[in-house]
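Re: that backbone. Tokens:
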């Protein structure tokens, strides 16, 4: 009888763990040149959304999360504008799509790419919106540092409301 209880508990844990999957995909139209990485000064970050469910507070959180992750050169660097446009968001299936452009004042484009973040929620155990925003910010920062491979998936403690 004890074996059946343990087996049922293991099956329940496996089902719960399988409910929480995430994926981040970056689709580049123009990758940032490795020589430019680390030499761009992100003086202006414009964050917009064409999606009603994504609030101004969410946009501010996305801007702050990206700025916290993107390195600024010590010696000033080339001044550029980082444009983030949220083009799709759905809470139930947890999908977030952000279009990213990096341009200087003369209109020269340094990078253009889209970040697609999808996730299946884990029965309300995670603040999924913040988790999606942090995952997108991580992907944007990796792209702007000209790092192609993502690190292995880990649990992000920033997403738990403790």
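Recovered sequence:
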């Amino acid at each position: 009888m004890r074996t059946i209880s343990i087996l049922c508990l293991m099956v329940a844990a496996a089902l719960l763990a399988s409910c929480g999957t995430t994926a981040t995909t970056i689709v580049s139209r123009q990758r940032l040149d490795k020589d430019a990485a680390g030499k761009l000064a992100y003086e202006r970050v414009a964050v917009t959304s064409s999606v009603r469910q994504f609030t101004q507070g969410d946009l501010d959180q996305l801007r702050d999360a990206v700025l916290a992750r993107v390195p600024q050169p010590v010696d000033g660097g080339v001044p550029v504008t980082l444009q983030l446009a949220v083009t799709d968001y759905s809470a139930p299936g947890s999908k977030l799509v952000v279009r990213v452009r990096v341009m200087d004042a003369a209109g020269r484009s340094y990078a253009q790419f889209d970040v697609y973040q999808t996730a299946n929620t884990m029965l309300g155990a995670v603040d999924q919106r913040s988790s999606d925003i942090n995952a997108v910010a991580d992907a944007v920062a990796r792209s702007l540092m000209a790092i192609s491979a993502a690190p292995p998936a880990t649990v992000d403690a920033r997403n738990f409301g403790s």
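Helices lie at 2-18, 56-69, 128-144. The two ends are 37 Å apart (CA to CA).
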